[in-house]
Amino acid sequence: MTITYDDALRERMRRNLAGHNRREVTDPTKRHAAVAVVLVDSEFGEDRVDPAPVDAWIAGRPMPDALDGRMVDVSGGASFLLCRRASRLSSHAAQWALPGGRLDPGETVVEAALRELDEEVGLRLPDTSVLGLLDDYPTRSGYIITPVVVWGGGRLDPCPSPDEVVAVYRVGMHHLLRDDSPRFIDIPESPRPVVQIPLGNDLIHAPTGAVLLQLRWLGLEGRPDPVDGLEQPVFAWR
Hints:
The protein has three helices and eleven strands; from the N terminus they run αββββαβββββββα. It is of the alpha+beta class. The strands form two sheets. Strands 1, 2, 3, 4, 5, 6, 7 and 8 form an eight-stranded mixed β-sheet that branches. The mean pLDDT is about 90. Belongs to the Nudix hydrolase family.
């Protein structure tokens, strides 16, 4: 069942975010970044063909068994925007990501998230569209990520920057509620569980997977459970 994109959802998200005692991470050894979790509307069945051929982005990335990496059959109702990063990027190439990046000097996390949203996917939204913030997530690659939840106000029409983003997908929020989601696996390199969010024909890992899990737990369900202790896969440590 899809989730209706309406004022009731917007107010539920805003209320749950406002009532949360947000976890902030302070670490002078890490750089601060922000990502935009943009909530938009979508139509069921509009994404039956992936606009990005696998060869254009995979860049040798290992694929799980029985999955081919395509993000298809995920649209419908209230959705979030998910980006497939370009394979030629110097860091985190070919990975799934939310629009975002490092804060410029003097910028707030909201300003940075909205600026990166404009630069990466061609969407310019005002600060009045911000519903609230999720918890900070410290990454293995040296960043503290602050997720900024933004109400898009409709379908929107992304125009991704080809230097950074191969394609932008509307992923229905109902997929975050799948019976097989979230998944947790153990790895020998860390005592912390690696989180996996099944979407389409792929698995979304932290940090993006951790952000999406809290979008479900806090935004949709009102659960304050932390996600900053969830691990990233080793390929995302660099």
